Amino acid sequence: xxxxxxxxxxxxxxxxxxxxxxxxxxxxxxxxxxxxxxxxxxxxxxxxxxxxxxxxxxxxxxxxxxxxxxxxxxxxxxxxxxxxxxxxxxxxxxxxxxxxxxxxxxxxxxxxxxxxxxxxxxxxxxxxxxxxxxxxxxxxxxxxxxxxxxxxxxxxxxxxxxxxxxxxxxxxxxxxxxxxxxxxxxxxxxxxxxxxxxxxxxxxxxxxxxxxxxxxxxxxxxxxxxxxxxxxxxxxxxxxxxxxxxxxxxxxxxxxxxxxxxxxxxxxxxxxxxxxxxxxxxxxx
Length: 285
Fold this sequence. Notes:
This protein is an alpha+beta fold.
């Protein structure tokens, strides 16, 4: 017997790519379970699928930075703290210090849909009842013909997992002037923020103030303490954009509207910024 649950959850996370650096991603997870009927004449109660399996996915990879085995640098974990120092692209750098729960180690050469699927199956199957013989997982981005960008960030004021300093989203962006959709502006910002780290000026520190990692002269340095612990990040300035506000989606939408208004002072600006799939914020200027 086969049981399926489409769009069980959305995985919002970042993964490290040796070419692109930290890539914010949002994948919709579809699940199929193969097995025998239990004494309730079910493969597995839908309530357990939605709670138990979703919780496993959330706990293991959601709102984390996924690190592949073939990292162009070093990754070490000691005393429940993780330290990363790596190069990406031709000349870019990233270093991070964070609680261990902020990362997910993927035993694969690269992080992609297939390697994450294999990783998740390894986490889920041992926790399934005996009648569940196998599971299939499909990870897919939101289908769209519109413009989007990949961004990573951290929210120190958040009580949940958004405080992790490098996690992210694949996000659509909608921009209108006087209620007319502007694809040109949407394309412009999606290119500007392709594979971007959005940092808050409030969290910016001098490179010399970093306690656990080292920054290059070409890096920005960030640090903050939140409920999960102490976080540090150094990342190439060329792959970072500083915002004079927090990087919640509400603030991102407002920032974009304000910036676009500067170049279009005579127009009514509307920005619809997404945070992953099916959620976000709208701002006007």
